[in-house]
Amino acid sequence: QVQLAESGGGMVQIGGSLRLSCAASGRTFTAYAMAWFRQAPGKEREFVAAISAGGGTTLYADSVKGRFTISRDNAKNTMDLQMNSLKPEDTAAYYCARKTGSLTTVPTTNVGSYNDWGRGTQVTVSS
Fold first, then answer.
1. How many CB atoms neighbour CB 127 within 10 A?
2. 43-48, long-range: CB within 8 Å, 24+ apart, which pairs?
3. Would the CA dihedral through 106, 110, 116, 117 be positive or negative?
4. Are 114 and 2 in contact (CB under 8 A)?
5. Spatial distance between the Cα atoms of 18 and 36, rounded to a whole number of angstroms
6. What is the C-alpha separation between 2 and 114, in angstroms, rounded?
7. CA angle 1, 50, 70 (to 5 degrees)
8. Which of left, alpha, beta for 121 (phi over 0: left; psi -120 to 50: alpha)?
9. How far apart are CA 56 and CA 114, in angstroms?
10. Contact status, residue 3 vs residue 25, Cβ threshold 8 Å
């Protein structure tokens, strides 16, 4: 069964940190690029960060560059998102995604390239 399960969300104060994790199963983890997306109420799902299958290439949205770090552990079939200096505009549901279309090992920012999705974990940044 193909499954992605996020964890680590919660409520944090402005300037704080959180670490999200995604546990993957059901496909050969090392064959696929992975990504994090987020969606705030009333807004479209937006790209946050992505990482290649081997972990050597990462992409970030401009809004999180320098604050968030994406990583993966191919031995454990997990992907993480370290989020620092959090802002209220980071408040959203965060989703783990796996790229299962063409060029599966190469990360992209396009939400349509990712076909496996987790159920999301909520991040709330408040004062």
1. 6
2. 43/92, 45/95, 45/111, 46/111, 47/109, 47/110, 47/111, 48/81, 48/94
3. positive
4. no
5. 14
6. 13
7. 100
8. beta
9. 19
10. yes
DSSP state of 86: -
Token pair belonging to 14 = 């402005």
pLDDT band (50, 70, 90) for residue 26: confident
- In single-letter form, the type of residue at position 100 comes to T
Spatial distance between the Cα atoms of 123 and 1, rounded to a whole number of angstroms: 27
Structure tokens at 16: 């704080």
Three-class DSSP labels, 35-81: EEEEECCCCCCEEEEEECCCCCCEEECCCCCCCEEEEEECCCCEEEE
The model's pLDDT over 31-53, given as tens digits with 9 standing for 90+, comes to: 999 999 999 999 999 999 999 99
Task: Kindly indicate the confidence band of residue 92, based on its pLDDT and cuts at 50, 70 and 90.
Answer: very high
